[in-house]
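Changelog entry: the Site-specific integrase record was regenerated in this release. Current contents:
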Amino acid sequence: MLVALVDTLKQLRYQIAHLDDGTLNSEYPELASFIQEIGLTVTESKADLTFLYQFLYVYGRKSEATYSRFRNELERFYLWSWLIAEKSVFDLKREDIEAYVDFMVEPDKEWAATSVQWRYKDEQGIRRLNQNWRPFMLKESTASQQTLSAMFTALNVFYKFALLEEKTFANFVPVVKKNSPYLVVQSQIQIPDTLSDIQWEYVFGVTRDLCEHNPDLERNLFTLACLKGLYLRISELSERPQWSPVMSHFWQDNDGFWFLRIMGKGNKLRDVTLSDDFVEYLKRYRLYRGLPALPRVDESEPLVHKIRGQGGMTVRQIRRLVQQSFDYAQQSLLDDGFKDDAEQLGAATAHWLRHTGATHDAQTRPLKHLSEDLGHSKIATTDQIYIQTNIKERAKSGLKRKI
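Regenerated structure tokens:
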């Protein structure tokens, strides 16, 4: 039987305590039985699991998204190591890691579920396992390049941490990745996913028009303005354990320029510049909420509010707002005869708005300014994604070639 080794981030510290003091059986009976059974063939299984919890606790403190990503990758790796290789994860050699990559590309169907499943839930004070949980999702095609890349990243970070903790003597992941037949070297030309001019015009314009009949859509309009006009990620607008975006994070300097303080990736703070156009939509949104036109330094109102309930919105809730506006725009595009644009919009995600704003502004803004507002640690990243200077120059120089 396949058993989920790790619960939620909130439950992790309890799992650590139960494993340490020997009470796992009373709190996680299925997991305790599984570890006991695995221990017959892999004697180091309990020590392996203890180290996994330690690793996830350290890296999970950065963000819940980081925790979930590493948990999912390492949990399936551990299960493969114990059940198929029948070894501790610290006894695996290069050829074992290669065998795991082969398994990742084409996992056993019994290891895959047809839908996302919860792991554990409370039942009379006991965390009960969901028997339908599986470490993989059933897919028609083989593992994508993104999936493989995420797997190699997680394993590499894990073994680097193990080296520092003197838990292992070697990290075979880099050499396996370098020689993997499944990874494709990316092309120089990587165009980000963006909305076309007409798609953005409909997404923003239709939402703005509908605000006349449904004022609550002002929240959608402001969210769209933040994601496209300020190049924000959805996570940067949402409530997180270590950060709650509020109106006082808008601030004005002595010269009258407005900024928004954001907690970005890696818990890095940055100040994003506001355009005159964005300030007008900020005023509009605040007036709809019954607030003064411009923010004050002491305001604790959430940046994107809930209509029912207190506090700001989660990533999932904000994504729903964006999808609602996408759906309205898609229908309007179809009604107006723009079938191709409507179909393409059906594949768009909220993150496309960040790419759309940055790609558009890259034509007029200095690269350094754009990079800082995006929160990129290196200007080269901005250039590679949105400018691609060398590629454009190469294309121009090749236009006059003769056959």
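The first strand starts at residue 112 and ends at 113.
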